[in-house]
Amino acid sequence: MFEEAQYFAPVAANEDGSVTVQLAANHPGFADPIYRARRNAIAALAVGHTRGDPIPHAEYTDEEHEVWALVTRELAAKHHKYAVTEFVNAAEELGLPTDHIPQLEEVSDLLTPLTGFRYLPAAGLVPLREFYGVLADGYFHSTQYIRHHSVPFYTPEPDIIHEVIGHGNTLASRRFADLYRLAGRAAQHVETEEALEFVSKIFWFTLEFGVMNENNELKAYGAGILSSYGEIEEFRGMDIRPLDLAAMGATEYDITKYQDVLFAAASLSHLEDVVGSFWATCDDDTIDKLRV
Ligand SMILES: [Fe+2]
What we know:
Layout: E1 11-13, E2 19-21, H1 33-47, H2 62-82, H3 85-94, H4 104-115, E3 118-121, H5 128-133, E4 139-142, H6 160-171, H7 174-189, H8 193-208, E5 211-214, E6 217-220, H9 223-226, H10 231-234, E7 239-242, H11 245-250, E8 261-265, H12 268-281, H13 284-290
Parallel strand pairs: 3-4, 5-8, 7-8
Antiparallel strand pairs: 1-2, 5-6
Helix pairs in contact: 3-6, 7-8, 7-12
The structure holds fe (ii) ion.
Family: Belongs to the biopterin-dependent aromatic amino acid hydroxylase family.
Domain Biopterin-dependent aromatic amino acid hydroxylase family profile: 1-292
Cofactor: Fe(2+)
């Protein structure tokens, strides 16, 4: 999931118990009443969900399943070229369906035996402390809707392709799953909003948009890059900086365009040493010292 409020379509609960997703006028699905009705129905599933209960079944059209199949096929080819080996191997082990959009329960059932993670449905933005906090307990909040079928390679919001092809495949790796859990531990541990924001910035520049060197090539492991048909072709040309906690915490980003500043780890072990150790041990004081 992306973390910024303005990136999600707002979700309003109505007095009659229904839910309305407020798509912006420039959203590809804005003028499609059937898509909008489905978005409302899917958001309502998450609003009514209680953790521990099965995630209600989301309805998709044949056109939407075709979007999943197309994007899955195209991204898988790009992953072999641009993704770190740990991700490619994890994706193979997870074995997501390629011909239909999986239900979140289906993804959870594939993931749990590998790393213990399960999905939780999200209607839209989840507050930072809740989103990150549950990672420590092996839960990942995810939207269920899919992008509009008219533009299969574009989405203005984090959709199920981002959540499952990007994050799900990563969560199938024991080593990456451990990093997600440590981010959750850090979010549960810190008290101030500033410290929580710092933890989330480190997550953004690593598990969302991280890159690393592998056999003298720059590869991606961040879910935001690995789920983006366009961005995955561009990341090597961005401003690549060395992995540095204080620098990541101090760097601003614009979620509405490609990330032009990226931080590269020297290896997965390097990422675990720097970022994993930070999340495992950080508190408000250590973060204060990094925020200078
Ligand atoms: Fe995300």
